[in-house]
Amino acid sequence: MSVPLSAYLVFALLLFCIGLYGALTKRNTVIVLICIELMLNAVNVNLVAFSKYGVNPGITGQLFSLFTITVAAAEVAVGLAILIALYRNRKTIHIDEVDTMKR
Amino acid sequence: MMENAWLIPLFPFVSFVVLLVVGKQLKERSAYVGMLLTFISLIYALGVLYERWTAPTYKQAYTWLTIGNVQLTVGFEVNALNALMLVVVSLVSFLVHTYAKGYMHGDERFPVFYAYLGLFTFAMLGLVISPNLLQTYMFWELVGLGSFLLIGFYFYKEEAKAAAKKAFIMTRIGDVGLLIGMILLFLEVGSFEYEAIFAALQNGNISTTIITLSAILIFVGAVGKSGQFPLHTWLPDAMEGPTPVSALIHAATMVAAGVYLVATLFPLYEASETAMMTVAYVGGFTAIFAASIGLVQTDIKRVLAYSTVSQLGYMMLALGSAGYVAGIFHLMTHAFFKALLFLAAGSVIHAVHTQNIEQMGGLWKKMKWTAPLFLIGTLAISGFPLFSGFFSKDEILLAAWTHGHVGLFIVAVIAAFFTAFYMFRLFFLVFAGEARTNVHDVHESPMVMVLPMIVLGVLAVVSGYVQTPWGAFLGEWLTEGTNWHAHAEGPSWIMIVATIVSLCGIALAWLIYGKQAIARDWLSSRFPMTYNVLMNKYYVDEFYGLTVMRATAFISLLFEYIDRFLVEGIARSLAAATRGIGRIGSRLQNGQVQMYGTVTIVALAILVVIFAVTGGYL
Amino acid sequence: MQPYFLSLLIFSPLLGILVLSLISKEQEKAIKWLGVLATLPSLCLSLFAFWQYQNGYDISQLTEKRSWIRFGDFPFLRETDFTVAYELHVDGFALVMIVLTTILATLAALASVSIQKEWKGYFQLFLLLEIGMLGVFAASNLVLFFIFLELTLIPMFFLIGKWGYFEKEKAAYSYLIYNGLGSAVLLIVIAILFARTGTANIAELRHILTDPIAQMQTISPISDDLRYGLFIALLVAFGVKLPIVPLHRWMLRVHVQAPPSVVMLHAGVLLKIGAFGLVRIALGLFPGQFQQFSTWLIVLGVVNLLYGAFLAFRQTDFKMVLAYSSVSHMGIVLIGLGSLNEAGMQGAIFQAVSHGFIAAFLFFFVGVMYERTRTTTLARLGGMAKTMPYASGFILAGAMASLGLPGTSGFISEFMAFVGAFRAEPWLAAIGTLGIIMTAVYLLRAVLRITFGQTTVTNVHDLRGIEWVPAISLLLFIVIIGVYPNVLAMPLQTTIETMMNGLGG
């Protein structure tokens, strides 16, 4: 028994939507970052799924997901670093309170 | 000579250009330039007339404008009527050029005056040799320009300014009629050439509706130019111009252009009974209408102006009664005696420095030349036997009678009575009796002004003899090759009636103003209403002020509001709406990345839905 | 003639811009002379071309074509699809407009002596504007046309906004917004046509759009509904330029606020781009639609004519009178175009040229007057015939030309337009003739107020020096066209024939 492609896609879609919702609505920056991770992972799921069930099955999709994971890790590292710096200076990590660039 | 007849208008034009350029240096010597060049025109015109006496009509045309496959031409034509008009116009113009040298002496803008005279003469001469309607129309308008410039010559006077404006606009209203009529004819015939139009008329290629419509519309143009009712009001006001101008333009030449136009297009009018009736009735009505106003006016030039309007009405009446020869004949004699009257009036004004006849009087002794000459003119216009006006008026009455317009005939007779009366009223008030104001230094005008008057005086007497009940030289020549009457045959009592009527008018005027046997206010005190109406020229100006001008002002105001509030309002509200949308947009743009993301996603979703529904194509 | 002739003609003012940028800002005299001189090469070239054309030179030899932009490289398309070439081409009509432009540019440059500040920037923008105008008339594809059109927009914006009168900024923005919107609409039309047919060349587009066979072979056929849409869009786009009531408000502000020398070009040439576009693009590409809308065009024309005339009657500022008179006179262009026959078309084109000269002429004198009296308000002027007899004479002559006195170009155009209109729609034309009367009324009212009556402003001097050049030469052009109209009618014959063929007879 094999899981059909659509199942992967629906799963990825749900994951992506949850991530999107979180990223757009949450005010805690940490949660936003986590939600971005969720979206990236949804993409990864899609990439892997298509690398097996796509029109031209091959290793490229999986390779790409590795790239994504790497980039995501780097991004989280940078993001968290900024956050910590921010927290040290401002004692807050709420998104809408960080608006010096707008002033 | 006839093949170079186009040179005739060109000489005055040269005068115009030369004086415009070097007039400032020439100062009063400008008069010699103008006189010389119009004199050449006159000589040339006489030569052409002499040649045309025996030779056939000469015509020449050159391509002027190409529209698609239609070629419009300009050119010139010398036929009997044109040749006659050339002489009349250039003669009067030359005489006025001479006269004005004395009259305008000392005026600051002397050269300009002569330049304008040159322009006008050019246009008028060009008008009379035009072989087609389009060219006629062009010179027609240029003549109007000359008239406008000369009426407004004393530009610093508010009255002159208003009069010039009025003259231009009133005649323009007529001109638009002419333009429409002309275009309608053109669309039907495919040519502006008189020949082509007449040929089409003969072959029956033009529908009756168009004939009538275009004839009447063209007549509207003539009404405007010739000061016929209801577009007559500009002509009396035009007397604000210098008196030589009134003589040249508003008596002898330009105002006769309307009559000339109808005469030129006579076959067109003949083809439509309605158009003929219109011409005759408008002419007849104008004749008596203006004559009745002339009875009470007190400005010497205005009396003459209303008399001009009335006499032009006579000519129209003649043409409308199929009296082609009668109309032209009266045009010619009128040109001479009315120019004489105006020049003499100018001479009087020159002497006493007023135009109000109530302040004149007793000039007979002081102006040895002017007074008898004025008398000659007065006798001629009153139709006194054996003067030129007698013969021409007689022709008109005959034409009206033989054409069966009994009503119009009676109107013409009454108008003749009025004419005799008010002209002699004018004469007695100005020349007879004692001076009513103490103007001391009244002197006769210089010879340069008197000589032209003498020439005109002679013509005012003898020009009638070219067409008498005993021999119709003019008529036979003019109607050569046509089936029009060279001379209207009618009962001989008409001539007697005309004589009696004119003598009655003269006698009555003498009783009231000469002998003062009847009190002057005999009539005005009994009929104050009538007197007031006449004094105020039937309130026509006031009527126009209340209707046409009010309406124009109202429409303008309406449009102004539309423009300012509706059009601008819509534009403003659009701008406001844009600004509102912008404000909403800027509220969305709060710097929150999350908001941007939301908007992006929603927009994407909408796009996806649209694509899904339409399948990718709009 | 040279293969680069047209490019040379269009871009020769560029030389002036370059030289001007090397000169110090302070050298007023030198800058002014250079500004005038820089307009001369294109003037000479255009007059030369016109003269050659009158002598039977085949003007289509001047056509230039160089490959320029290529969009995409799709194997299923032909080599020529979705390419835009740099291509210039003139016919009689375009050549006439180019001559008009170069003449007015030189004369307006001469009239610019009254500019008070920053001559350098002024003349640079002025020359840039000239390039744009010349390009518009010579461009033979829509993209190039559009680029040149936009090129006129920007210098004009600064010329109004910087050198104008009191409300200059507002006028400049008005100008930019209205014309920008018009251009946007035009751009949409161009984009749709380009996307659907793969070409922007006007002649090719005309072929594709009017020939049923060619239309079947095009990339994506254009339905009739879309044609109507595009036609109306074009009408709006050029209606802003012309302007057609109710899109005229911007133009009043520009007329009043811009410096007179700029208005000479604006009223003289820029408004005519609207007429040019209507003829070349709207009529050229959509003759069928044009035919169906022809009655409405006449209606619009009559509305323009009367609306402008009645409003001009009420204005208290001479510049406003002239502005509304421009609205009114552009109505005659519409009437002529809408009548769809030779007489009407020729009348419309004549009116475009004639109004160019007359409007420039009158605005030149507005400048002359303002320089001396510091006002253009009618109530404060009067009796100028005494203090400035020659200038007054010229103003009167201008008014006479404007109201269509025979012997001036105004008459010929009005006359032909009305001949056309009476053939097409006699009743509408009859209503339109009311405009002829009203034109006389409002012009005489305004002009006599200024020149006749009591003198209000004394110790002013008459025309002098260089001012005579524009005055006399413009009047000369007006009179020459009026006295011998074939000088203009002959070059237009082929254009009008082509147009009539496009209309199917």
UniProtKB/TrEMBL annotation, chain A:
It is an enzyme of class 7 (translocase). It catalyses: a quinone + NADH + 5 H(+)(in) = a quinol + NAD(+) + 4 H(+)(out). Pfam families: Oxidored_q2. GO terms for molecular function: NADH dehydrogenase (quinone) (non-electrogenic) activity; quinone binding. The chain crosses the membrane at residues 6-24, 31-51, 63-87. It is found in: Cell membrane; Membrane. Its EC number is 7.1.1.-. One of its GO terms (cellular component) is NADH dehydrogenase complex. PANTHER family: NADH-UBIQUINONE OXIDOREDUCTASE CHAIN 4L, NADH-UBIQUINONE OXIDOREDUCTASE SUBUNIT ND4L. This is NADH-quinone oxidoreductase subunit K. It comes from Anoxybacillus pushchinoensis. The gene is nuoK.
From TrEMBL, chain B:
It is found in: Cell membrane; Membrane. It is a multi-pass membrane protein. It comes from the Bacteria. Pfam families: Proton_antipo_M, Proton_antipo_N. Residues 130-419 form the NADH:quinone oxidoreductase/Mrp antiporter transmembrane domain. Residues 64-114 form the NADH-Ubiquinone oxidoreductase (complex I) chain 5 N-terminal domain. The chain crosses the membrane at residues 6-23, 30-50, 80-100, 112-131, 137-156, 168-186, 206-224, 245-269, 275-296, 303-329, 335-352, 373-392, 404-428, 449-473, 493-513, 593-617. Its main location: membrane. GO terms for molecular function: NADH dehydrogenase (ubiquinone) activity; NADH dehydrogenase activity. GO terms for biological process: ATP synthesis coupled electron transport; electron transport coupled proton transport. Keywords: Membrane, Transmembrane, Transmembrane helix. GO terms for cellular component: plasma membrane. InterPro entries: NADHpl_OxRdtase_5_subgr (IPR018393), ND/Mrp_TM (IPR001750), NU5C-like (IPR003945), Proton_antipo_N (IPR001516). Gene3D superfamilies: 1.20.5.2700. The keyword Membrane applies. Belongs to the CPA3 antiporters (TC 2.A.63) subunit A family. This is NADH dehydrogenase subunit L. The lineage of its organism: Bacteria, Bacillati, Bacillota, Bacilli, Bacillales.
TrEMBL record, chain C:
Pfam families: Proton_antipo_M. GO terms for molecular function: NADH dehydrogenase (ubiquinone) activity; NADH dehydrogenase activity; ubiquinone binding. It is found in: Cell membrane; Membrane. GO terms for biological process: ATP synthesis coupled electron transport; electron transport coupled proton transport. GO terms for cellular component: plasma membrane. The lineage of its organism: Bacteria, Bacillati, Bacillota, Bacilli, Bacillales. This is NADH dehydrogenase subunit M. It comes from Anoxybacillus pushchinoensis. The keyword Membrane applies. Keywords: Membrane, Transmembrane, Transmembrane helix. The chain crosses the membrane at residues 6-23, 30-51, 93-115, 122-139, 145-163, 175-195, 228-250, 262-283, 295-313, 320-340, 352-370, 390-407, 427-444, 465-484. Belongs to the complex I subunit 4 family. Residues 139-437 form the NADH:quinone oxidoreductase/Mrp antiporter transmembrane domain. InterPro entries: NADH_Q_OxRdtase_chainM/4, NADH_UbQ_OxRdtase, ND/Mrp_TM. It is a multi-pass membrane protein.
